[in-house]
Amino acid sequence: MKSVTTRSSIVQKQWSNLKRNRLAVFGLFIIVVLGLATIFADLLTSYSPNGVDLSNRVQPPSTEHFLGTDKLGRDVFSRVLYGGRLSITIGLCGALGAAFLGVIFGSIGGYFGGWVDRILLRLSEVVMSFPALVLIMIFIAIFGQDVFNLIIVFAVTGWIGEYRLVRGRFLSLKNEYFVESCRAYGMSNLRIIFGQILPNAITPVIVSVTLATALYVIAEAGLGYLGLGVPPTTPTWGNILNSAQSIDVVREYWWLWLFPGSVISLFVLGVNTFGDGLRDLIDPNQ
Amino acid sequence: ACSNDEKVTNETDSLDNESSNDNSNDAKTEASNEALLVGDGNGEVFGETFRTFWVDNPNGIEYWINRGLLKRDADMKNVHEDLAAKYEVSDDELTYTFTLKDVVKWHDGEEFTAEDVKWSIETAIKFPTAVDTWYAFDAIKGYEAYKEGEVDNLEGVKIKGNTVSIELRYPYGMFLQKISNFDILPKHLLGDADIVKLQQDPYWKKPIGTGPYKITEVKFGEYAVLEAFEDYDGPEPNVKKVLYQRIPEGKVLPKIQAKELDYIGALRNVDLVDQISKVPGYKVHKVPQIYNRYFMVNMKGSQKLEDIKVRQAILHAIDRKTIVEETFKGQAEVADGHVPPSFADEHNKNIEKYEYDPDKAVELLEEAGFDFSQPLKIAYYYDNQETVDLMNIVAFYLEEIGVKTEISLLKGDLLELIYHQADYDIIYAALSQPDPASAIQSYSEGSLMFQTVWDGYQYDQVFSLQEELAQTSDLEDRARLIKEIDKIQAESLYILPFYHMNVYAAVNESRLKTAGEYGNEWVDYKRHLENWQLKN
Amino acid sequence: MSEQTILKVKNLQTQFTSGNKTVNAVNNVSFSLKSKKTLGIVGESGCGKSVTVHSITQLLPPLGKITDGKVTYIKNGNEIELSGLKKQGRQMRSIRGKEIGMIFQDPNTSLNPVYTIGNQIVENILQHEKITKKHAIEKAADMLNSLGIPMAHTRMNDYPHQFSGGMKQRVGIAMAMVSNPSILIADEPTTALDVTIQSQILELMKRIQEDYGTSIIFITHNLGIVANMADELAVMYMGKIVEYGSTRQVLTSPKHPYTEALLQSVPFVGMDKEKRLKSIKGSTPDPSSLPEGCSFASRCEFATEECKVFPNEFHLGDGHHVKCWLYKDKEVSIKKDGKRDKIGN
Amino acid sequence: MLSYFIKRLLAVIPILVLTSIIVFAGLQLAPGDPLTHLIDPMEMTADFDREALEEEYGLNDPIYVQYFSWAGSLIQGELGYSLVNGAKISDVIFRRLPATFELAGAALFISSILGILLGLISSIKPNSSIDYFGQGFGVLGVSIPDFFLGICAIQIFAVTLGWFPVGGRLEYGTEGFLDRADHLIMPALILGFSLTAAVMRFTRGSMLDILNKDYIKTARSKGIPERVVYAKHALRNALMPVVLILMFRLPFLVGGTIVIERVFNWPGMGSMIIEAVTGNDYPVIMVTTLLVSYVILLASLLVDLITALLDPRVRFE
Amino acid sequence: MEKEIKLEIKELKKYYPVLKGAFKKVVGQVKAVDGVSFSVNKGETFGIVGESGCGKTTLGKCLVNLQNPSSGELLYNDTETGVKNALNLSKKESFKMRKKIQIVFQDPYSSLNPLKTVYSAFEEPLKIHKMGDKSKRKKIITEIFELINLKPEFMHRYPHEFSGGQRQRICIARALCIEPEIIICDEPVSSLDVSVQAQILNLLKDLQEQKELTYIFIAHDLSIVEYMSDRIAVMYLGKIVELADAKLLYKTCKHPYTEALVSAIPTPDFDKEPIRNVMKGDLPSPINPPNGCSFHTRCPLAEERCKIEEPNLKRVKGSENHYVACHLVSTVEE
Ligand SMILES: Nc1ncnc2c1ncn2[C@@H]1O[C@H](COP(=O)(O)OP(=O)(O)OP(=O)(O)O)[C@@H](O)[C@H]1O
Ligand SMILES: Nc1ncnc2c1ncn2[C@@H]1O[C@H](COP(=O)(O)OP(=O)(O)OP(=O)(O)O)[C@@H](O)[C@H]1O
Ligand SMILES: [Mg+2]
Ligand SMILES: [Mg+2]
Ligand code: NI
C-alpha cells in the first residue's frame, strides 16, 4: 500500500507540479529576486534613497550611479530598491486586506443567504459600479494620502473579487454532504464556516490575492504617477514615476522613468505568471 | 492680487496644442499667421468657464479685454489714467475723485457709465471672494453698514454725471494702486444677478469688457480668439487678432520649438526657461515681480521653535545658496527678507543674513537645548513635484545636522488645518505678491497668522509700522517703512525666508515686437498692447 | 456465420498521457459488431467503456491517443479503416453522424444550450445530405414525432432547457438517428435518468433498431439493462475485455470471476433477504499504476500465482471467450479454419 | 424579451438610488474645503467672510436638505456648478464626455475585437507556439502599467519617430474626426492594450473550458467541420463569460482612461475627475462619479441584454 | 412480538418557497414533502423509494433536523426520556436529538471534508458531543475502524486517499461513532461502483444486527430497497402512494405507479418478462403538482375521479400491513 500521505507531502507534490510549470517558476524567481533585493536594499547600495546631492543632478547611468540620479541628485537605483519595498508591501497588504474583507463577507453571505446575503450582494454591485480608481481617488481625497490609508482604501474597494469567489464557493460547498453531516451532528455555524468550509474555499483566494497584489502594485504606481498615492515625499515606485508627468523628463531624462517603470512591469509580470501557474495548479481547466 | 500659483502648476487639464512634430493642415497655419499667438503661462485660464475678474488670479485674459479706472506701471508703483480721464486726491487723502472718459463703449455697444463703477465697487464688497479689494475697500465710508446689509447704498461712493468720488474713513496709502487693479464690470449685464451666485451667470461664458480686444470665440480648455475692438476709445491696436491658448506646462517647449507661440508670460519653471532661451528667435525677459518661498513658523503650537536660536539654526543648516545655484540655475536668489533686490527702493540690504553653516546650526541647537529625538514636523499643502522636491531637500539638510523630520502634506480643509489644528512646526508657503507692501502683509495685525498660530506673540513695533504704512502714500516713506518691517522680520524669524524666484516672459522676437514692458502677470499693468506688432 | 459483421475492432489500444503518467485506458480490445444486432459493453466506472467507443470515431479528448490497433467499418462489403483516417478529416467526418451516430450519457449537458433543438438536429441532416433546409426541418420533425415528442414542429423551436431529461435524451437519439446511420453508439444513455424514464428510452431504442435495422453498441454498467437490450456482451475491467459472448451465455453462466461476482453482488427484486450479497473485496486499482498480470487478481478469490501473468483468452465455445487462467484447461479448441479467433495475446 | 429588459431596468433603480446616497454621504465625510482652493490660505485675512462664501456655495444647509435638493435637481437634469471655477457642470460634462467616449469607445472596440480574436486563435491550438505567443502577450498586457506603456510610446513614436503627436485631442482649426484621428490612435491603443490582453486571456480560458463540454463532443459526433464546431458551438457559449468580463473590466477601463488622459493630455472626463479630486470640488466629483457609475450600470444592463440574446436560458428565465 | 415504535411522523410537510425577481418575491412553493405520515419500529429497516425529485432526501433531512419542516409532527421515542416531538425542542434538547438520529449521504466523495484527515472527521462529532477525553476518543475511533474493516493505521489519511467504497464505510462509521439509534441512509450506494455496492449493503446489515439500529433506507432503486427493507414506502411527488411489507410490495403491488416502477426495474434475469408496463410522460414539477391524484397525468388507468379527488393513504382490503393511496384499489377506512 501507498505510504502515508501527510499534509506536507501534499504540499510537496503540489510544489513539484508547480516546478514543472516553467513560467510559474520564472515568475517566482522574479518575485524572489526583486523581493530580496528590496528587503536587503541596504546591502546592495550605499546610497540613501533620500540622499540629496545637488551637485549631481540628473546624471545619466554611470558606474557610480548605476541607474543615474534624479533631479535632486538622489541615486535612482537606491530609490527603486527602497521604493519597491514600500510598493510591494502596499500591494500585498492591500490584497490581503481586500481578501480578508471579501472572505468574511463572502463566507457570511454565502453561508447564511437570506437578507444578509442580499444586502452584501447589493453592496458589492454598488461598489462594482464605481470604477475602482475613481473610488480610490475619492477615498484618498477624503482620508488623506498615507500609506496606511492607501492599504485600507485598496482593501475597501477591492474586496468584490474575493467576495464573489468565496460566496460562490460557499454557495456550492454549503450543500456538500460533508457540511450537512457536520450540521447533522450539531456543529455550530461558526465552526462550520471557518473550520470546515473556508479551508476548502481558500485556494482560489490565494491565487486571487497573488493577482490582486500585482494589480495593486500597478494601481499604486498609477496613483503615484498622478500624484495621488502615498505622500510624495515617501519613495515608492509610483512616486518615483511622478516626475515622468512632465514631458521634458520623458524626453531628456529617460532613466528617471524607464528603469522604475521596467522594474514595476517586471515585478508585476513575475507575480502574474506565478499567479497563473498557481491557478493552473488548482484548476487545470482554466 | 497675488497668487497661489504653486497649486496650478500641477494643472491637469490640458489641452490641445500642437506638438513640434505635427505639421498639419493649412487652415491652422493660416490662422496662426495672421493671429498673435499668446500662451497662458498661468496655466489656469478658462478651464471650464471664465472666472469673475475680481477673484484671486482669475484668467489672465482680462487684461486684454477689460480695464479698471487706472492702470499701474510695470513696476507696480505709479498709476496712470485708464477708464478715468483724470483723478484727484484730496489733501487729507480721504477723498478720491475720478472723472471718466467721455465715450467709452462696452464690447456689446452699450455705453460705459459711472453707474458701472459704483455697481462694481458695491458688488465686489459683497462678493465673497473678491480678494483684490480686501483692505482697500474696507476703508470706504459706510463699508460696514453696507456689507452687513443695513443700508442699500454704499455711503462713500457717490456719482455725479461722469465723476465718481470715493470717500474713505481713514487714509489708505495704496488706494490708487488697488483701484487700478480693480476691473469694472458691466452693470447692464450683471446688475440683476444674485451676488453670491455671480460666478454662475451666463455672462462668464463669454465676458465682455471695455478693453482693446473682445472675445469672438471660446473653446473652453483650449483656446479663445480675440479680435481688436472697433469702438475702443484708445489708439487702435496693431495686432488685429489674438489666439489665446491654454497650454499645459509640459507642452510649452514643443510649442515654442515649433514657433507656434509668440508670447507667454509668468514662466517659472527653471528648466523650461533655460531651454526656451536656447531656442533661436526667442528671448526670455525677467519680470520684476515678487515671488517668495518661505516657511511659516508655528510659534504658538510648537514649543520646539520657541527659541529663536532654533529658528536661526534651521536657516543655517540649509544650504540655500547651493539649492538656488544647482536646482534653479541662477533663476532665483537666496532671500533674507521678503522684498527681493530687484525692488531696489524697498529692498533692505542690511538685514540679518543666515549663511549656510551647519556647525553653527548644531551649536545653536545645542545652546537652545533642542531635543534631537523629536522630529521636526514640516507641513506643506501644494502637491506639485517641485514642492515635494524642496521638502525632500530640506529634510535632507536637516537630517544632516541630526534633526529628524516628519513631512506631511496637508489636505482637506486647509484653513482649519493650518490655522486651528496647526499640527506642524513649520509650514511651507510660496506666494507671489504684486508689490513689496503686500509681500510683508502677513506681518500685520489683521493677518490670520497673527490671529491664530502667532497668537500671543504680539509685536507692537511692527503693528504700528504697518499701520503707518497702510496710511502713507508717499513712496519714499513707504520704502523706508517696508525696509524696517522686513528687518524686524529677519531678526525675529517668525517666517523663515527661503528664496525669491524669478519670473519670466518669453517672446518670439523674430515675429513679435512688444512694447518692452513686462510686469507681474497676475496684475493689471500697462502693457501698451496697442503698440505690439507682428513683423512681416 | 450468417450474420454480417459491420464493425471490427482489433487490438485497440488507447492511451492518455499527461505529464509523465500514461494510462492505458483501453488495452488490447477486440470485438466485432454484427449487423442489426446490439453489442453491450458493461463494466465499472472508469474501466474504459467510453474511451473504447470514442476511439472508434476518434472523438477522444486532447490527451487521448490511439496507439495501436485497427478499427474497420464495413459497409456493403467495403472495408473502411477508421483508425487510419485523419482525426478531423473529411472522411472521418463523413462517417460521424452519417454512418455512426452517438448518444451520450447525460442529456442535460450533451445538447448545446444556446441553439434550438431543431437547429441542432437539422445541422446533422444538412451536413450529410444535400436537401433544402425546409426539407431537413420536415425530416427532423418526423423523427422527433416518431420518438414520441408531441407537437414536434413547434417544439423544435424550443431550447434544450425547456425540455425534461427524458425528452432531451429523445432529442439526442433523434439527432443521432436522423441521418439513418448503420451504427448507433449509446454511451450509458439512461444512467442519468429515472427508472421509469429509463424504461421508456430503452423501449424506444429497441423500436428504433427494429424500424431502422441499426446496429447498436450499448454501454452501461447495469447488468439488468444489458440483459434486456444486448445480443452480445463484453465485460470490461480496467481497460480490457475480460469476458465476451452472447448475453445469455455471459449472464446465465458467467465464467470470469469478475462477471460472476458482479452478478451476485447486486440484489434483485424478490431475492431472499437473509442471503448475503457477494461482495468483491477491495476496489478498482489506480489505472495509472496497474499491477502486472491480471488486473483483477488483487480482488479475486480464486487468484493464484499464475495470475501474475496476464491470462490469455480462452475460447469456451459458441463465441464465449474469457480471459482467466481458471479456464486454461477448459478451452474448446475448435479451430475450424486453422485460425484461432484470438482476442488477447 | 422586452419584459425581461424592463424587469432588469427596474432592478437597477434601487442601486441607482443607493449609489447616489453613498456618493453623497461619502462626500459629506470629506473634510476638504474647496474654499482654500480658490484662495491660498496664506492670503486669507482675519476678517475674511467665510460664511458668505459658504452660503454662496450652499454648504450650510442641513445634510438631508442638501441631498434632496441635489438629487432633485439631478433628476431635472440640473447638475449644478463647480465650486472651483463656477462652471456649469452639465456644460463641462457635455464638452468633455465626447472626448472620453471617443477614447474609451475606440479602446473598447479595438480590444474586444482583437482580444476575442487572439483568444480564439490561442485556444484552437493550445500549447502551440501561437498559443505561447498569445499567452505571453496576455500576461505582458496585464503586467505593464498603462501609463508606463504610454510614456514609452510617447518617447518612441512621438518624440523619436515623430509619427504621432505628443498628446492633445484637437487644436485651433481642426474640426472633423479624421483631422484628429492621429491624436487618437496612440492613446486608444495603449488604453486598449491591457484590456485586449485581459479579454484575450479570458476568451482563451473560456474557450478551452467550453471545448471540454459534452455538447462539443455531440457536435463533433455529427461530423460537422471543426470550424463550425468552433464558430458555432463553442464561440457563442464562450462569449457569454467574455461579455461579462468586458463588463467587469469596464471600471478598469474608466480608471485607465483617467491615467491615459493624463499621459496624453486628453481633455476628457478623466482629467476632469483628477482636477475635481485635487480641488475638493464636491459637486463635480459627485456628479461625475455618479455619472460614471450610471454609465457602468447601463453597460451592465446592456451586457445582460447581450447575454440574454446569446443565452436562451437567461431569456426564458 | 409487540413492536416498539421508534419514530413516528404525522402529516409532515416541507415546502420550499420559489423566489423570483430582484426583490425575491415568493411566487410559488415547491411541495417537496407534502403530508407524509408513517411510523418506524425499533430495529427495522424502513425503505423509501421514488423517482428523482420526489422528496426523499428532503424527508430524510427533515428527520435529522437539517431542514425545518413546514408543518407536521415528528415523534421520537427516546430510550431515556420517552416520546418527544422533535420539532419543538429547545436548543439543548435538539442538540441531544442530533446524537440519536444520524444520516449517511448519497455521495461519499463529498461527504468528507477533503482537507481534514479521516481521524479528525471522527473526532469532531465526538468532541462536540463531549464523548471522552483524547485517549478515549482515540480508542473509540480505533474500534470503529476495525468494525468497518479498515486498518486503523489509515486513520490519519486524507479522504482522497480512499476509494469510494472505503469512504462510504467511513461515512457510515462516522455516523455510528456517536452511537445513534436511528440512521437515515440516503441512497448510500447509488454513486458507488456496482462491485462495491455489496460491501456497503452487507456492512449496513451487519451493523444493524450488532447495534440494534433502526434504519430508514432511501433509494431510487427498488431492488436494493426491497433487499434491505422490512417495510417500504413508495413516494411520488412528495406523497406516499403505497406502503407495505417489502415482501408483499413486489408481489402484490396495488398502486399503478408502484407497478410501473417494479416492471421498469431491469434485472439480469432472463426468465423475467421484459419491460411490460412502460409509463408515459415525465415526473410533473412539484411546484404545481397536478390536482386530484398527482399520478393521474401518467396513470394508464386514470379515471375522471382521479383528476379531481385526492386519494388518501388507506389500508388495502384484506391485507394487514398494506396501505395505498389510489381510488382504484378497494381499501378500508380505519
Ligand atoms: N480526458 C481524459 N484524460 C485523462 N484520462 C482519461 C480521460 N478520459 C478518460 N481517461 C482515462 O480513461 C479511463 C477510462 O475512462 P472511460 O471514460 O472510458 O470510462 P467509462 O468506463 O466510460 O466510465 P464511466 O462509466 O464512468 O463513464 C479512466 O480510468 C481514465 O483514467
Ligand atoms: N433547498 C431547496 N430549495 C428549494 N427546492 C428544493 C431544495 N431542496 C430540494 N428542493 C426541491 O424539492 C424537491 C424534492 O427534492 P429531493 O432532493 O428531496 O428529491 P429526492 O427524492 O431526494 O431526489 P433524488 O433522487 O434526485 O435525490 C425537488 O423538486 C427539488 O427541486
Ligand atoms: Mg463513460
Ligand atoms: Mg436525494
Ligand atoms: Ni493674488
Automatic annotation (TrEMBL), chain A:
Alphabetical list of Pfam families matching this protein: BPD_transp_1, OppC_N
CDD domains: TM_PBP2
Membrane protein topology class: Multi-pass membrane protein
Domain of life (superkingdom): Bacteria
SUPFAM superfamilies, alphabetized: MetI-like
Primary localisation category: membrane
Keywords: Cell membrane, Membrane, Transmembrane, Transmembrane helix, Transport
Subcellular location: Cell membrane
Stretches that traverse the bilayer: 21-41, 88-112, 119-142, 148-166, 197-219, 254-274
InterPro entries per the UniProt record, alphabetical: BP-dependent_transpt_permease (IPR050366), MetI-like (IPR000515), MetI-like_sf (IPR035906), OppC_N (IPR025966)
Domain ABC transmembrane type-1: start-end pairs: 84-275
Record's keyword annotation contains Transcription: no
Family affiliation: Belongs to the binding-protein-dependent transport system permease family.
Name used for this protein in its record: Peptide/nickel transport system permease protein
TrEMBL record, chain C:
Chief place of localization: membrane
Naturally occurring in which organism (per UniProt): Virgibacillus subterraneus
Subcellular location field: Cell membrane
Key words, A-Z: ATP-binding, Cell membrane, Membrane, Nucleotide-binding, Transport
Topological relation to the membrane, as annotated: Peripheral membrane protein
UniProt family annotation: Belongs to the ABC transporter superfamily.
UniProt domain ABC transporter: residue ranges: 7-263
An MF annotation (GO) of this entry: ATP binding
Entry protein name: Peptide/nickel transport system ATP-binding protein
UniProt-listed SUPFAM superfamilies: P-loop containing nucleoside triphosphate hydrolases
Automatic annotation (TrEMBL), chain D:
UniProt xrefs under Pfam families: BPD_transp_1, BPD_transp_1_N
Membrane topology label: Multi-pass membrane protein
Bilayer-crossing regions: 9-30, 103-124, 136-164, 184-203, 242-264, 284-310
Keyword Repeat: no
Domain ABC transmembrane type-1: 97-303
InterPro entries: BPD_transp_1_N, MetI-like, MetI-like_sf
The keyword Transport is assigned to this record: yes
Family assignment from sequence similarity: Belongs to the binding-protein-dependent transport system permease family.
Name by which UniProt lists this protein: Peptide/nickel transport system permease protein
Record organism: Virgibacillus subterraneus
From TrEMBL, chain E:
PROSITE patterns: ABC_TRANSPORTER_1, ABC_TRANSPORTER_2
Span of domain ABC transporter: 7-262
Tagged with keyword Nucleotide-binding: yes
GTP-binding found in the keyword field: no
TM stretches of this protein: none
Alphabetic keyword roster: ATP-binding, Nucleotide-binding, Transport
Any one GO MF annotation of this record: ATP binding
Family: Belongs to the ABC transporter superfamily.
Protein name: Oligopeptide transport system ATP-binding protein
Lineage of the organism: Bacteria, Bacillati, Bacillota, Bacilli, Bacillales
